[in-house]
Amino acid sequence: MTDYRQKYQMTPVIGWLLRDRGGMILLSILIAASILIPVGNLIVPEGSALHVPTWMMSLLGKYLCYALLALSVDLIWGFCGILSLGHGAFFALGGYAMGMYLMRQIGDRGVYGNPELPDFMVFLNWTELPWYWFGFDMFWFAIVMAMFVPGLLAFVFGFLAFRSRVTGVYLSIITQAMTYALLLAFFRNDMGFGGNNGLTDFKDLLGFSLQSDSTRASLFVASAVMLGICYILARCITNSRLGKVLIAIRDAESRVRFTGYRVEYYKLFVFTVSAVMAGIAGSLYVPQVGIINPGEFAPALSIEIVIWVAVGGRGTLYGAVLGAFIVNYAKTFFTGVMPEFWLFFLGGLFIAVTLLLPKGVIGAVPAFGSPDRQSVLAGLRKRISNGRANQGGKA
Amino acid sequence: MSEAAEIKIEQAERKEARANTILYVDGVSVTFDGFRALNSLSFYVEPGELRAIIGPNGAGKTTMMDIITGKTRPDTGDVLFRSDVDLTKLDEAEIANLGIGRKFQKPTVFESHTVFDNLLLACSGGRGVFQALFHRLGNAEKLRIEQTLETIMLVDKRDETAANLSHGQKQWLEIGMLLMQEPELLLVDEPVAGMTDSETEQTAKLLRSIAIDRSVVVVEHDMEFVRDLDCKVTVLHEGSVLAEGRLDHVQKDPRVIEVYLGR
Ligand SMILES: Nc1ncnc2c1ncn2[C@@H]1O[C@H](COP(=O)(O)OP(=O)(O)OP(=O)(O)O)[C@@H](O)[C@H]1O
Ligand SMILES: [Mg+2]
Predict the structure, then answer these.
(1) What is the ipTM of this complex?
(2) Any signal peptide, and if so, which residues (chain A) (predicted)?
(3) How confident is the model at residue A369, as a pLDDT?
(4) Is the residue at A8 inside a domain?
């Protein structure tokens, strides 16, 4: 045991990554997928059983973006207890930054053929580009903004909220209010982001057509790689002493304060990092789905992200990724077969997971549960008998 | 004598009273929704002193600690550390970093961390975000943690998750975390609640040994324990000091008998 601890503390990042079983599995899958899926799409001929259709590759790419978004939420919720119900806002802002670049790429191929102005601006009789659209004709600038804008918003928002010690339900509510306010703002035509239609009709990215299979394959690979990189970064954070402080804040915030840590700075740090990751996810998402509109700011979507994390298993990072895939696959399935039941299913799933699998799907897999973990059934039995005991006690 | 001269003499006296204190609480009052939890409370702790504070439930003992550690702001009064640092202007983290450690009434440790990590997080040193991000465990730190584990009698629980400790062990762990902070002044709220007799005895010994090179203020109800501490006792009642002195002495005080010991 002593020996293990010594190694654990002394070896570099690679050492503990190798011991992070869930992480290794995730990274291996990501590496395999980013090789096999593009090969299956681009090289394997269409008739073959191994061919991966483009729609499927794009769908998986979209899931990867959701997975990165879920990862960013797990980093703050699972490890620091900050339940953000507004992370969709950071995702959408990242998406808008990329969308603005894609709009500028359209150039004079729009309906109105204006080389400078996107169609919706011509339609509004605007004569010149608003100042905040400057620079978005450059890809690097859009990428920087996709990270900077969500990061800045999170920093300012977090600074105010954490300094005033807003926590728990109150914090969740104001994050909802934040994304709702942005939803209303982006709906307005005179904001200059295309109003309720948002930004769409994208043509190409860095000169490559968004319709071509090879561009789509590249976007898929980029999403997988970014998810992998962000996973490793998040793991670096959670495994550091800083990560231990975050967990301590989650468990006993005032104890951390009386130990001499400035809790608000720690929260601010991880909240900002998380928002940047959400922004990156949004910027990868938009070129793959071909549209960004204010609907992405909808408060309900932000709540859904939290459900992904809860379903997969909070506080594990890879659980969040798994949860995003499970729930979104179910969503795709349901909206195809019986769309009217989707919300019932989502609500039911959330309740079922909270009651039966408090540690999420990951927690139910023996290899990933904690050593003193009980089997799902035993846990359920205990809950039921506890419930009886409580009722008995009250009567 | 003129009035001005009188004030001057009074100020000089107060300054002298303050001069050799590690903790100086003077005329502190605090009101919660009209309820006066502390009522012009004054007491002083000298460097290296071990002090027990007793008093019935609701006397304001915990509130007093809240005031000293920056959790609650007093309505009026002075709270000075090392006779010149005004604690009423600082927040919890600043006060902790000045060298005041606090154990809560309800033992509060980081439940999902191991005993070792609990001590590591409390270890004095950089508290900055980026310092924490790039921190590597050094040998000196490790040595200190090992020593503290021995002091708090938890060597064999080193890698145990804190949630799995007994109530008494959590109390010790929390005291150990205070020690890791290397405070000059420890405020310990009800350290032996929920402990067995032998654990209580060990804790008294532990606190006495800690008080050799630090100042310690202990709040406790357990009279046997307070007797074991063998130190000056302050009796609080309705937010102010009722009596002060050796335990035998205060136990004979009729007012103390009336409000507290007699019941
Ligand atoms: N934040 C608060 N708001 C309102 N009332 C409070 C608050 N904190 C303490 N009080 C009240 O102040 C009084 C003193 O409480 P305090 O906790 O300091 O007592 P105590 O001496 O520590 O008692 P015990 O021995 O039970 O721990 C109590 O009547 C309590 O109800
Ligand atoms: Mg108390």
Answers:
(1) 0.88
(2) none
(3) 53
(4) no
